[in-house]
Amino acid sequence: MLSKTDQAKYPFAPEAVEYVRRRGLTVDELSDPSYATILDRAEDRITQAITEGSVSSEWQNDDLEILSFPVAVYLATMIQDDWVKRRFALAESRRASQFLIGEDIDKFTEIASKTFAWNIEVAGTESSRDVPHIGIGFKNYIKNALKIRDPKWKLTNRLVSHGLVQVGKDEAARLLQEEIQTRILSRMKDIPGEEPDYLMNRIQRLRRLVAEKGTVTYWELPKIAVRSAMPPCMRNLYDSVHSGKHIAHIGRFALTSFLVNIGATQEDVLLLFKTAADFDERKTRYQVEHIAGSRGARTRYSPPKCSTLKTHGLCVSPDELCSQISHPLTYYRRRLRRSFPRGRRYAEE
Amino acid sequence: MQRNEEYVERKFEEYYRDNVQRTKPPPEMEKREYGFLLFKEGVMVRHRAFRTPSDLHAFIRTTVPAHAYNSTAYYLEPEEDMDRKNWQGADLTFDVDADHIATPCKYVHDVWTCKKCNAKGKGPVPDRCPECQGEKLDEEVWLCESCLERAKEEVIKLVDFLAEDFGFSRRDITTCFSGHRGYHVHVRAEEVKSLDSDERKEIVDYVTGLGFDLNLHEGLLDRKSSSEGSYVEDRGWRGRVARGLYEILTKTSEDEMASWRIKRRVAKTIAEKRDEFASLWIAEKVEEFPEGVGPTTWRLLIQKAVERESVKVDTVVTTDTHRLIRIPETLNGKTGFRAAEVSSIERFDPFSDAVAFKGEETVYVKEAPQFRVGNECLGPYSDTVVTIPAAAALLLISKGKASPRRD
Q1: Phi and psi at residue B340, in whole multiples of 5°?
Q2: How much is the ipTM here?
Q3: Is B196 part of the annotated catalytic residue set?
Q4: Is the pTM of this model over 0.90?
Q5: Interface of B with A in 79-138 (CB under 8 A)
Q6: Contact assessment for residue A348 and residue A210, using Cβ atoms and an 8 Å cutoff
């Protein structure tokens, strides 16, 4: 069981949720001035998240930490900004991860296995080392390691044995951080109701802070597909199709989804595939419409990311820029920006 | 050609009349989608569902498909359109196929034809026709003993990865012959069902060795004795690389090593002292490497070891969570062989264990390489009428290399 101090460290744990529930704290009650300190701490958590990307690990008392967390989740959701949600979840997960590193190995594994249902085992020490190794179920490992971009997290570069992936304690804490982030984000999915009056000021203040922090600006892509800005993989697929070569289904999917995302019309894509050896207009039209989102699930498919293209052997002759990006669309945007440095910018909604 | 197809269909009909109950529906069969490729005009029937084995059997017996598939996925509504099926999970599936393995014998038995100028050649299809630069080429592949032997080796390696590294119980791993040039390996365990495509990709990257970075495998090249025992006993990729190195060092000729861009002088040193270098990997770990082979060469050798120990699989099949895959114990329309479930991969002989048809047939063979069915070695044939085992006749006819003799 988690102690009250533990709950203050890990306020997303079921024990903390239960504690808050038993206290019977409701949204309406929060307007009572006696709860001002909780609201202050909640706002403080979000402010720190926005400005610093982390939440400080100091606290006044356990109760305040436990109770201010769900209030902060509520308040952050009220801002209705995806960036704030992600930033808040990241900052809170970093805070928890800091505490986790400091825990002894028993407490650490208890939290991983009880709070997050991880398959985790402490292995003996390996001869010359004193640090115990931790084995994490491959499924728990993959789910979280996938979100971290660094070759050292790739499963291929890990010791995997009998279903367990060997990691150090700090690495396990890093993976738990991802898990925590996911859990907090999942609590912020619900669309909040009306903004209560007593929170208006705080919400306004936080929104202003977000605005000051600066809005991310994006490039508006040209309305036509620019071949010279395509990454090598897509140019290769494009040229293959163009010269009537047969390419595998996955390659056709990658190219089509890429093209419809950079402004090519469905007719453009169809025209391109017409030269293919095995062109079947009805079938191709159906597939292109599916990928473009004008049929079926009605969502436009994104092209596969670099790692997926690599798995399927579609990544060919990567260049300098490829080493800096992880998605073909990012390559395309960057290349365009370099070619047309004074294009139009707009702020993302 | 038309006559050939009718002949094969008639044979399949006879087979299914007596043997359809051998067909093995997958576990939780009612949650699967079924698909069938019919002989007639190559029509694909999809989005079918069956509640009981006998429903499925009745369908196959009356429809007589050239190919029969079930989804690797589990759905709440398998008969609905893709978007409304309500995906519940999927088996973890691997497709090992000679198409993905570079075997030298492909230059003997695989043929391509240029659609433009009719030029022919052997081996894997080139990008362009060397005669007319045409890029539209047809390929005709053959299922050969050594290709299938290589595929078997891949399956053995794969199952070892799944059992030893991923810890799956061997009871949860099923291997089936595809009926053509390879094998399907199914992992059916509760924990794999919910894996998404990206997560499956990590598993497939692991078994294919994609992204292997030597610098991140402590103790291989830097020789830090980070664990007890010898390298070949190590777990995971480190042990695999050591075992691969041992094999390479004991067996590779000087010339072959030189062809890997290893300096002739170094290749000579290795060949001369191969036992000494090989024993490094089976003996207790040491801090120092003997002289004569530098880090650049070791890196090259380790890369070769990774290639050797990695499994060649069709990456698309494993990462596709909505895949259709051949139903075990149905007939493959490309060959007339059964997609037989394999109980022991080491002992499995596709050319006798997957034979579906008994008796003999007299056929006209246009052209066929040497091959074997059961204990009988057949061919090569050219423009001749022969009486051969029915399974062999069906194979040649399905492949368009022979036609039924006119009565």
Answers
A1: -75, 140
A2: 0.91
A3: no
A4: no
A5: 81-83, 115, 127, 135-136
A6: no
